[in-house]
């Protein structure tokens, strides 16, 4: 799928309705966007946000998510042992 970057108001963007539908996204859904500057890849994932239990702050969850992403391969290797 090849698209041209266009101007949307003051922003740049692309249309990709078919691709978003393929991963089950629709208008109003929240997504996670990861940019790999080394490879030039942009990864878009559907967010599966859930309500946090009492006493767990969003900051904690953000930190935990960052640690998991940073050590993803290490965690996968531990699982395989």
Question: Tags for this entry?
Answer:
two-stranded antiparallel ribbon; extended; 81 residues; 3 helices; two-stranded antiparallel sheet; 33% helix; 4 strands; alpha+beta
Strand content: 15-25%
Q: Would you count the extended β strands for me?
A: 4
Report the span from N to C terminus.
Answer: 38 Å
Q: Helix fraction?
A: 25-40%
**Could you list the spans in which at least 5 consecutive residues all have pLDDT below 50?**
none
Rg (C-alpha, Å): 17 Å
Anisotropy-based shape: extended
**What is the element string, with H for helices and E for strands?**
EEHEEHH
Q: In which order are the strands of the major sheet placed?
A: 1-2
Report on the structure:
The model has no long low-confidence stretch (mean pLDDT 89). The protein is extended and about 45 Å long. The chain has helices at 17-22, 58-70, 72-79, and strands at residues 6-8, 11-13, 31-36, 41-46. Helices cover 33% and strands 22% of the residues. The strands form 2 sheets. The chain has a two-stranded antiparallel sheet with strand order 1-2. It has 3 helices and 4 strands. The protein starts with 5 loop residues before the first strand and ends with a helix. The chain has 81 residues and is of the alpha+beta class.
């Amino acid at each position: 799928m090849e698209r041209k970057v266009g101007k949307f108001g003051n922003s740049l963007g692309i249309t990709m309705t078919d691709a978003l539908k393929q991963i089950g996204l629709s208008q109003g859904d929240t997504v996670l966007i990861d940019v790999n500057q080394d490879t030039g890849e942009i990864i878009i994932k559907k967010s599966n946000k859930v309500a946090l239990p009492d006493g767990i702050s969003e900051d904690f969850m953000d930190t935990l998510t960052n640690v998991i992403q940073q050590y993803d391969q290490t965690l996968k290797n531990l699982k395989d042992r």
